[in-house]
Amino acid sequence: MLEILLFRVGEGSYAVRGSEVTALVRAARLTPLPRAPELVAGLLDLRGELVPILDLHRRFGHPPRPLQAADHFVIVQAGSRRIGLWVDRAEDFQSLPEAAFDASPAKLPRVGYVAGAVKLAQGPVLLSDLAAFLNEAESEALEAALREAADASSDGRGEA
């Protein structure tokens, strides 16, 4: 069985593997992270852990909009890093047979951030590839911004 979490960003429906989800939280105020890639909306203090939150509106080419109280942060494990995905609404966990997964959309040209699609009654939904959400340059810039924020915080120069 394949467990997924369905979510909405703009008018689109998307999904992540349920095994990658570590928490689901209501949107909260974010702390800006200077020199982070534009994709990073800010940092969330999640029980003492600073988690970078990615703006999926920006990543998926939807019009930008301000954070709203009804939004959700889907906290996921993306390789060795925990990140948060800013979504309009987390909808539902679903268990599907593996046959519902189709990897072919991931092979189409210029389709980034997609591991494939899952076939649902309401139509296909793109399954996100968390390892591809940040390209190498974005990943390096995020690491540098996080290190700099941690150094500034430990030196007493500011808070992250």
Written overview of the protein:
The protein is 14% helix and 44% strand. It is mainly beta. The chain has a single domain (2-154), classed as CheA-289, Domain 4 (OB fold (Dihydrolipoamide Acetyltransferase, E2P)), CATH 2.40.50.180. The strands form 2 sheets. A 6-stranded mixed sheet has the order 8-1-2-11-10-9, with no helix packed on it. Strands 3-6-7-5-4 form a 5-stranded mixed sheet. A hairpin with a 2-residue loop joins strand 10 and strand 11. The model has no long low-confidence stretch (mean pLDDT 87).
Q: Which properties best describe this structure?
A:
single chain, 160 residues, mainly beta, OB fold (Dihydrolipoamide Acetyltransferase, E2P), six-stranded mixed sheet, five-stranded mixed sheet, 11 strands, 14% helix, globular
What's the SSE blueprint?
Blueprint: E1 2-9, E2 12-17, E3 21-26, E4 40-46, E5 49-55, H1 56-59, E6 72-78, E7 81-87, E8 89-96, E9 101-102, E10 114-120, E11 123-128, H2 136-154
Parallel strand pairs: 2-11, 5-7
Antiparallel strand pairs: 1-2, 1-8, 3-6, 4-5, 6-7, 9-10, 10-11
